[in-house]
Amino acid sequence: MSAGSAPRSARSLPRSARTDEQARRSASLPSSPTSRRAGARTVAVWDALDPVLASGPLDVLDIGGGTGTSAVRIAGLGHRVTVVDPSPDALAALDRRAREAGVSVDARQGDLAALSDVADPSGADVVLCHGVLEVVPDPAAALAGIREVLRPGGTLSLLVAQRTAAVLSRALAGHFAQAAELLDDTAPQGRSGRRFALDEVTGLLEAAGFAVSDVRGVRVFVDHVPGSLLDVDPGATSALVELEQRASTRADYLPLASQVHLLASLR
Q1: pLDDT, tens digit, for every residue of 27-43?
Q2: Secondary structure (3-state) at 78
Q3: What share of the chain is helix, strand, coil (3-state, %, to 5)?
Q4: 8 Å CB contact between 60 and 123
Q5: Among 40, 108, 169, 265, which is most buried by a count of CB atoms within 10 Å?
Q6: 199, burial (CB in 10 Å: exposed 0-12, middle 13-18, buried 19+)
Q7: 127-174 pLDDT, tens per residue?
């Protein structure tokens, strides 16, 4: 489902100021219920990525970056960002988001299965592959393609859905037959695609020539917290963010996480 390059860009403005202080990040969370929940869902990913993005400017490739939620944030730190996504509508939304933020993002229509059609060999210092490996026909081939576009010493940020959490959520919802089917089923499940066990992901990465340096659980608790709680008490968001941060690096809570995030570099 590949297509030729279709660059879209916006004018660059001066580099945005950044902070690595978790307290200040929590305090600046948006006030809407949706944004507050989103902040808790992604905080573990950014805790892992922030040190990687601290140097630069870097060439960052965001595969399946869609409307640019991550890309625009990274471009605001002064990095050169390219998004590859199969959806022209998503890329148009990315263009609007980038212009509104006053940053430049290179948008290219294409997908992970044919990454070499739209991305330069050894052209990226950092590759983001968030929520994409689940839906490709061949995850091993996809990781081999990512290896080709990473520079020596480059970093892969990989975010995948975890099978154990999917089983738990279905069981808690009373869908016991679905939960039982997911226990050992590695095949794709509808539009959401496949889920992975941690050892499956690390095995795929090692086979593709990557060395894993960081593993974090993402969305350990937030998916189980009633939205009404965050609506009534905005201060609960900061506490939830801190809880997600603390649990994300603890191995005993990793199986509960809806997603797992891994940083890996070329061996």
Answers
A1: 344 445 556 567 888 99
A2: coil
A3: 45, 20, 35
A4: no
A5: 40
A6: exposed
A7: 999 999 999 999 999 999 999 999 999 999 999 999 888 888 788 888
